[in-house]
Structure formats: C-alpha cells, structure tokens
Amino acid sequence: MSLATALALIGAISAALFAGIGSSIGVGNAGQAAAGVVTEDPSLFSKVLVLQLLPGTQGIYGLLISFITLSQIGIMGGSNPTDIGTGLQYLVACMAIAIVGLVSAIQQGRAAVSSIALVAKRPDQFGKAMIFPAMVETYAILALLVSILAINGIA
C-alpha cells in the first residue's frame, strides 16, 4: 500500500470513527434521559425514542463518507491514489464530517436530552421539542456536503 493510499484510508477511517463516537455519546446520553421518562410514563416511549435517535445520524454520515472514499481509492473499487498530495486531499476532505460529526452529535445529544425533558413535562409540545435537536443537524448536513463535494473534486 502506498503512502498516498494510507493517508486516504486514514481519512476514511476517521470519518466513520469520529462521527460514530459522537453519535454513540449523543444517543447514549439521550437514551438515559429517555429511559427515565419511560419509567414514569411508558406512553411517551415513541416520542422520546425519536428524540434519542436524532444524534445517530452523524455516524451514518461518517460511514457514508467512508464508503465513498473507500470506493474511490481502490479499497472497494476505483483506483489507488498515486501521489501523497492526492492522499492528503482525501484525508482533509474526510475531516469535515469527522470533526463536525463528532462535535455536533454530542451537542445534538445534549439538545435531545433537554427536549426529552420537555416532552416529559409537556407531551403536547413534541413538535416544538423536535426542532431544538434538529437545528444542530443542520451543521452535520453542511459538513456532509462539504466532504462529498471535496471528495468528488479530487482528480
């Protein structure tokens, strides 16, 4: 394996790894809050479950970028990058979702915990409660788009 391929592979792994870590933290925190609410009122299960799942999307975005990168660098098809500059471009392109995915999933988990508390007290406000963690999702989607555009722009 060339150094260029190794750098690109580090980018692909980082995208899945860091976004996945953030999602697991966010979903875990929200799950703890959701379990507490369901203990008191089992009828709220479906509402708090939706809120718990929201921070998991960053992990999916990181995995998507990882698959796109792996398919372009010859691990799952495509051709191996031949120079270090190209390998570095893949590495940097993957960092957008890796870093933003990590941070936004954790922050989205925190927003979801607060929204779960809102639903516990005011179940009729579920729609409004969804908006708070969904706003954090915006930045994960922007990072996903940046990574996709950057990867597709590598010649």
Notes on the protein architecture:
The chain has 155 residues and is mostly helical. It has one domain (3-154): Four Helix Bundle (Hemerythrin (Met), subunit A). The chain is built from 5 helices and no strands. Helix 1 (3-40) runs antiparallel to helix 2 (45-53). The radius of gyration is 18 Å and the shape is elongated. The two termini are 20 Å apart. The mean pLDDT is 94.
Please identify the structural class as seen in this structure.
mainly alpha
CATH class (first level) name: Mainly Alpha
CATH architecture: Up-down Bundle
What string, H for helix and E for strand, traces the elements in order? HHHHH
| Total E-strand runs | 0
Number of domains: 1
Strand content: under 5%
Low-confidence segments: none
CATH superfamily (homologous) name: lithium bound rotor ring of v- atpase
